[in-house]
Amino acid sequence: MSLRRLLSVLATVAALALPPAVARAETAIDVTIKDHRFTPAEIHVPAGKAAVLNIKNEDATAEEFDSSALKVEKVIAGGKQGTVRLRPLDPGRYPFMGEYHEDTAQGVVIAE
Question: How many folded domains does the chain comprise?
Answer without folding.
Answer: 1
